[in-house]
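Quarterly update from the structural biology core.
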Amino acid sequence: MKAAFSFFIFGIIFDVSASRLCEVYSWMACPDAFSASRSNTSASLPLNSAAGPTNPASMSTDRGFGLETLKFGNSYDVSIISGTGVIGSSFSLSNNEGTFFGERPPENEFNYIVRELGERKYKSPKFTSLFAAQLLGDKKGSSFKLNLGILAQYNKNTKAYKGGLGISAAYGPVSIGAARFKNDHFDTLNLQAEDYFTNSFTFGFKVASMAFDWTYIKNDATNWSRVRLVTATLFTKKFMFTYSFRQEESRYPTTIPPFVYNEAENQKFESFLGIQYSLKKSIILGVFSNYYLLDSLTIGLTIFI
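Predicted structure, tokenized:
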């Protein structure tokens, strides 16, 4: 443990003062396919679609066009991502709520229990558009970068448009971010709509081929939730390994099919593991464990043009 800690500290010092760590150790050879498409903010999250809806300022602004697809059972979630080098955007027919890296959606408790016991993922009714602009800094120049993000979404259940703003700043390997947007939910059981706010805060550290992030997400809905995430990712030449730990406080009981546990504090602890492989520079295959908070596997495919 002491040796590993010493290696980590040495890597940080070496990266800042001399060269990137991935240029020193061949097994960490600087992987353009993975790290080039990521901003410093939330860089450890496995997908742009996992990070963007939490803070749109974390979207990549790199020039290009990409398609992210997730397959769980017979369902698919697809996100379209593009960038000009200064402005980045994304569009999806869903949202990251109900996933490992998003907020717990404020669904009716009965619907939640039935869905969880049936091991069915939450189907977001929201069409989500994200925009990010780099206000200060550039990809190769200044050590300080400042991004502004905009989230706009349409809820097909409430037939309403909502949105908000996000901001992120990075200096060298350190980054911070915050976002706030108005959200809504339609209770299909009680036939009632509710507006609420979602807030998020992030703190990250990206050095060479390693990235670490702490994320906090909360909403003030009637069925509120508080989510804390600690995520670490290692980028190698062909692989990307991600591990994340999630602590959630909410009004929802814990479900372990076929049982339901309604505890006083209703705290839930979950873990996530993701492995992605760069088949070619523009094609990335991934396998994710517990992405939809159901302890099941999800298949991912990302294509860059």
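Helices lie at 2-17, 21-24, 32-35, 48-51, 109-117.
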